[in-house]
Design brief:
There is one protein chain. With 123 residues, the chain is mainly α. It has a single domain, classed as Glycogen Phosphorylase B (Rossmann fold), CATH 3.40.50.2000. The protein has helices spanning 13-23, 39-46, 59-63, 75-85, 88-103, 107-122, and strands at residues 28-30, 51-54, 67-70. Strands 1-2-3 form a 3-stranded parallel β-sheet, with helices on both faces. Helix 2 crosses helix 5. The protein is globular. The N and C termini lie far apart (39 Å).
């Protein structure tokens, strides 16, 4: 499993529950009209689940090329995304891309980004 910012608490009940929750599902699904940050996308990706997400707010930025996006106002677009994720080669490609994408979201990267911003604000 790639290093992600969920990993610092591997023995917690929440971590254990999430692990088992994601084992039950074949893919991550984010139909949100608005999402502040796509943490559930990353949770699915680090657990080798392909992701389908709405093409809104921060989701395309967080998921990059590692998810299938759809217009949340269009049931037809959602249906097409669901059909696409059933294709084995598409699933495998999304799983690999998702694991790679999620690996870049670490506490170290987050803190380094904040540090850079703070240095720019101070100078």
């Amino acid at each position: 499993m790639p290093a992600c910012y969920l990993k610092p608490f591997p023995k917690s009940l929440v971590y254990w529950a999430l692990q088992n929750f994601y084992l039950l599902f074949g893919y991550g699904f984010m139909p949100s009209f608005y999402k502040g940050f796509g943490l559930p996308m990353l949770e699915a990706m680090i657990r080798s689940k392909p992701v389908i997400a709405a093409a809104t707010s921060s989701l395309p930025e967080v998921g990059g090329d590692a998810a299938i996006y759809f217009d949340p106002h269009s049931p037809e677009a959602l249906a097409k995304a669901l059909v696409r994720i059933l294709d084995n080669s598409t699933r495998e490609q999304l799983i690999t891309a998702g694991e790679n994408r999620a690996a870049g979201f670490t506490w170290r990267n987050t803190l380094e980004g904040f540090h850079t911003i703070y240095e720019q604000l101070i100078s």
